[in-house]
C-alpha cells in the first residue's frame, strides 16, 4: 500500500532534480547536432575550424566607404565573416529614449536618436555592403537589433542571425527569429545560466541549428570578468550544441585561450583606429591584431591535435637515442629463473624489452647466457 508521502512524490522532487529531468527529457525529444552548417559550405562544431567573426558593428562611423575598407581588412586578415548591427530605430527604441539629450564624447548628435541615425545604414546601403562582401569573398551578416531588423535581414538572405546579448532574454524575439529557420549565434552577456536554459528550450522548439557564445558585456572587459570557465560549463550544460566566445577584452591572448578550451565560434570587434570616436573602438582589434589573432588560432588548432595518446613517428629519433630497455644487472646463466634483483633499466644497445614490462619477466627463464649490462630481448625469454 502506498503511503501518502509516496503518492505525493512528484510534487516533492527537489527543484534541481526536477529541472534535470525536464532538461534531459526535452533534449531527447529533439536531438540536435553538435555540428551544423552556419554558412553555405562552412560547418561549425565537431572537428571544424573555429569560425571567426569580425564584428564591425557601428565602428564604421556611419561612413559606407570606411565600412568597405573594414570588410576588405577583415578578409585580408583571415576572418571568416563580417558582422554589422542593424536596427529599425523606431522599433528598437521608445520615443523618449530617442529624444533624450546625448552629451557623451562619443556622440554623433545632440539627441540619442540623432546619434543612432548617423550610424545607421539604410536598406539600400546594407544591400550594397552585402554585395561588396560577396565580391571580396567573405560571409556577411548582422545582428538584428529588433524584430523588424530581423525581417529585413531575412529578406536579404543573410546566412545566419546573430542575437545580441541585449535580446537574449527577449523571448518573443527569440521565438520569431528561430521560426525563420536560419542558424542562430546567440550571445550570453548580462544573462544567468537559468536564463540560458530557458533560451535553449525556447529556440530548440523551432530551430536545431544554434550556438551559444560566452560573453561579458563590458567595453573594454577587465580580465577578471572574462570567465572563460563558462565555456566548459556551457559544454556540459548544452552538450548537443557548439559553444563559442564573444570577447571585449584588450589583446588577443584570451581569445586564443577560448579556442583552446573548445570555442567553435569566435567574435571580436574590429576597428581601423582605436582612437576614433565611439565606445566600441577601445575594445576592438586593429588590422594587425586581427591578423595575429587568426594566425594564432589556426596554430593552436593544429597544436590541439589528437586526443589519442601514443608514441608518434616524430618521436622515433628521440626514442632510439634515449629510450631505455631492460638489461641484466649481473651475469645470468642460461636456464636461470629471473628475479627482480637480476634486472635493471638503462639506455641500451640494442634496444630490448621496454621498462614497463620488467615485472612480467620475473619468474621467466632465460634461454641463453647474458653478461652484465646486456640487453634483455624477447628472444631470450622462454614463454
From TrEMBL:
InterPro entries for the chain: AFP_Neu5c_C_sf, Aldolase_TIM, Antifreeze_III, PseI-like, PseI/NeuA/B-like_N, SAF, SAF_AFP_Neu5Ac, SAF_PseI/NeuA/NeuB
Keyword terms of this UniProt record: Antifreeze protein, Secreted, Transferase
A Pfam family: SAF
Domain of life: Eukaryota
This enzyme's EC code(s): 2.5.1.57
Localization, UniProt: Secreted
Transferase listed as a keyword: yes
Catalytic activity: aldehydo-N-acetyl-D-mannosamine 6-phosphate + phosphoenolpyruvate + H2O = N-acetylneuraminate 9-phosphate + phosphate
SMART domains: SAF
Residue ranges occupied by any AFP-like domain in the UniProt entry: 325-383
Stored Gene3D superfamilies: Aldolase class I, Antifreeze-like/N-acetylneuraminic acid synthase C-terminal domain
Sequence similarity: Belongs to the type-III AFP family.
Function, as annotated: Contributes to protect fish blood from freezing at subzero sea water temperatures. Lowers the blood freezing point. Binds to nascent ice crystals and prevents further growth.
UniProt name for this protein: N-acetylneuraminate-9-phosphate synthase
Organism: Ameiurus melas
Classification of source organism: Eukaryota, Metazoa, Chordata, Craniata, Vertebrata
